[in-house]
Design brief:
Strand order of the largest sheet: 1-2
Number of strands: 2
CATH superfamily of the domain at 6-69 and 81-95: ATPase, nucleotide binding domain
Shape: elongated
Structural class: mainly alpha
CATH class of the domain at 6-69 and 81-95: Alpha Beta
CATH topology of the domain at 6-69 and 81-95: Nucleotidyltransferase, domain 5
Number of helices: 5
Strand content: 5-15%
Order of helices and strands: HHHEHEH
Oligomer: single chain
Helix content: 55-70%
């Protein structure tokens, strides 16, 4: 709906001038919220930030259930997205959230190490 390539979402969201809450719990409803924001002429950068903030709030809620430490490393492909990383930092309330050097492979490397034992 936003018609922004995935690799441009992160940098675009960093240009946002306001924070807009997204309350959708599923992709279908989130897309409806995005469409509504587009129709109300909301800036694409603000919409991109709203998407990242919505996703990060869900992730942080899960992290808090298992236990939140003062040192976090963000892994997986999403760690390549600077907009999500910034949203995650704001949501979790930490300035220093690290990203792995090869975040895409951390899970696979961990599985291989576990299998080797």
């Amino acid at each position: 709906a936003l018609e922004v390539p995935l690799e441009e979402m992160g940098p675009l969201s960093l240009k946002a001038t306001q924070s807009i809450p997204m309350n959708a719990q599923c992709a279908v409803f989130a897309e409806s919220e995005v469409i509504s924001l587009i129709h109300s002429k909301t800036d694409k950068a603000d919409i991109a930030r709203a998407v990242h903030d919505g996703l990060s709030s869900r992730v942080v809620a899960m992290v808090r259930r298992v236990g939140l430490d003062s040192e976090l490393v963000l892994i997986g492909g999403v760690a390549h997205n600077p907009g999500f990383v910034e949203s995650f930092k704001r949501t979790v309330g930490l300035d220093d959230v690290r990203t792995a050097a090869e975040p895409d492979f951390v899970g696979a490397i961990g599985a291989a190490l576990a299998a080797a034992e």
